[in-house]
Amino acid sequence: MRKYIRILIISVALLFSVFVSVNFNPKKAFAKEDLYVRDWTIYAALKENGDLKITEDISYEFNEKFNGIYRYIDLNETYSITDIVVKEIESGKLKNFALKEKAKNGDEGVYTVEKKKDKTIIKIFSPSNDEVKTFRISYIINNAATKYNDTGELYYKFLDKDNETFIENFTVYIDLPFDDGSDRVKIFAHGPSNGTINKIDGTYNTLRYQLKTTNVESNTHIETRLLFPPEYIRESTNIVNKDRYQEILAEETALQKISEQQRIKKEFKKVLLGRISLIISSISIFVFIVIWVICRRKVEQDTVNRVYKDIPEDCTPALAAYITGLSINANIFFATVLDLFCKGYLKIKRSKDNKEASINDNFIIYKTKDADNTLLHHERYFMTWLFNDLGDGNSVCLKDIENYSRQSPQKFNKAMMTWKNKIKEEAFRRGYFDNSKSVHGLVLITLSVACIILGFITVINKNIIGLFDLAAGIVLLIYGLCLFYRLSYKGYILCRKWKGFTRYMKQLKPNLSAEDVADPLDKSLIYALGFGILKKDILSLGHDFYTEDGWLFWYVLFADTSSNTFSESINNSFADNSSYVGSFSDGGGGGIGGGGTGGF
């Protein structure tokens, strides 16, 4: 139980970290983007003739190689853009870029302007990679403001929904040509909910407003709508003989009302989801506790913690490894070979008759007798696979096994999966696994799916309570899956005994006499090998103590990983294949302008 409580606490902590990162700094929450805008500052000054003079300072962070950046501005046929100038701000100094009719990738210090029916595209050629650059783009939007009988209106979109580049900081300064203290100056802004509008001190009797927002995701629009006395743009030729002041106020009031309704709806949804999530997670945890109590094994701690010096049960090394949840690897393969060696079904010989294993040696496994019914199913399959599939029917070279695993990895992996399934079948035949708790597992998995989906939806709606649903769902899913592959009481006790055996073997320092080496009856070293425990201590006895007719010789040769082809061939056969087999166990949008930016 304590293990699952730890998983629950860790899950909540990790999910909370992700939640905070996403909601407070989404840019840093995910992998670094190839290109993003660090800072985008716009200075927009409205002139008395209704033109809007704009200067944009945009700082880009290039994390990959780019030829430059582009800035496109959306305008309909009623408006036009002139006086486009591009510069780079470098160490506080301005570097002029030259306007070219055409340019190609790799050019530097130039820009092009392509005007289409409803869009102007400015391409700035400045090859960049792993650096930050700031460009200043200046231009004039002609007749940006409209002069009505009772009001002047500037309805301008600084960023369009088509923009695909993340912006960390976005600031707009808007200057009106006069500041006569009129109460008919109204400003509205449409865009992200975290945006702010501030009135700040202007210069030379002008009125300045600041629009500011942060962490602007792609496909987000930002626009402003300013109302002011028509005298502010007395020289404008964009005149509409119509009263619009009250009508525009009504439009913006309606938008604000809709926005407020949406905010209230979102808040209600957020609270409701939070309450439902809390109820579901509480019910799920209660069900988890009940099922855990029902499925809990009552085992004496002495049985769990005891160290076992002898082999707990007469089974194969592969079966012992499967019970404890190990993966198929070179150690289990060779432990099986040595176990069959002991039983008299095979022998190992070297192709060259010399004592030392050299880099060019090849080793051959010979079948000494056919597999019979005294062997288990997975042992008989192993013999067939080894000699008939990998060898010539009577023998197989280690180099052939290594080459086969490299040249036909799918067939090799499929054979290993079949071997694993045979081992699994034997484990079930012996009653090591219990399927009676699958219904409980299905209940927990069903609840976990509900928790994870509901928690995900709740978190998207920015309610932190959803994290508890997600964490509870993870715990329920893990435990539910475990109940489908649950060891029986017999299998659990045996698993603990094998783990007690491995603890003993890890501490053991073999003290073998010459008689032990000549006729090694205890196969503990073979089983320990299956668990990845190699006793290199016995290497100190020297090769003269061993004979090739005994399995201990080949155990020593496999344990001696210092540049011999015997261990290399076996390990290389499984180096790239074990992972395949797996384990044993808001409104607006009517303003002119807009556009966005990106790299090319």
Describe it.
Residues 308-533 form the Predicted membrane protein YciQ-like C-terminal domain. Keywords: Membrane, Transmembrane, Transmembrane helix. Residues 40-228 form the DUF2207 domain. Helix content is 40%, strand content 25%. The model is unreliable at 26-31, 516-520 and 577-585 (pLDDT under 50). It starts with a helix and ends with a strand. The chain has two domains: 34-243, Immunoglobulin-like (Sandwich); 297-432 and 488-581, no CATH class. The strands form five sheets. It has an eight-stranded mixed β-sheet with strand order 5-4-9-2-1-12-15-14, with no helix packed on it. It has a five-stranded mixed β-sheet with strand order 6-7-8-3-23, with no helix packed on it. Strands 10, 11, 13, 16 and 22 form a five-stranded mixed β-sheet that branches. It contains 17 helices and 23 strands.
Key phrases:
single chain, 600 residues, alpha+beta, eight-stranded mixed β-sheet, YciQ-like_C, DUF2207, transmembrane, membrane, transmembrane helix
Write the layout of secondary structure elements.
Elements: H1 2-24, H2 26-29, E1 35-46, E2 52-62, E3 66-74, E4 80-90, E5 93-96, E6 98-99, E7 110-115, E8 119-128, E9 131-142, E10 145-147, E11 152-159, E12 167-176, E13 186-190, E14 196-201, E15 207-216, E16 222-228, H3 245-295, H4 301-305, H5 317-323, H6 330-342, E17 346-350, E18 363-367, H7 377-389, E19 395-397, H8 398-407, H9 409-429, E20 433-434, H10 438-460, H11 466-484, E21 486-487, H12 489-507, H13 514-518, H14 524-530, H15 551-559, H16 565-574, H17 578-581, E22 592-593, E23 596-599
Parallel strand pairs: 1-12, 6-7, 11-22
Antiparallel strand pairs: 1-2, 2-9, 3-8, 3-23, 4-5, 4-9, 7-8, 10-11, 11-16, 12-15, 13-16, 14-15, 17-18, 18-19, 20-21
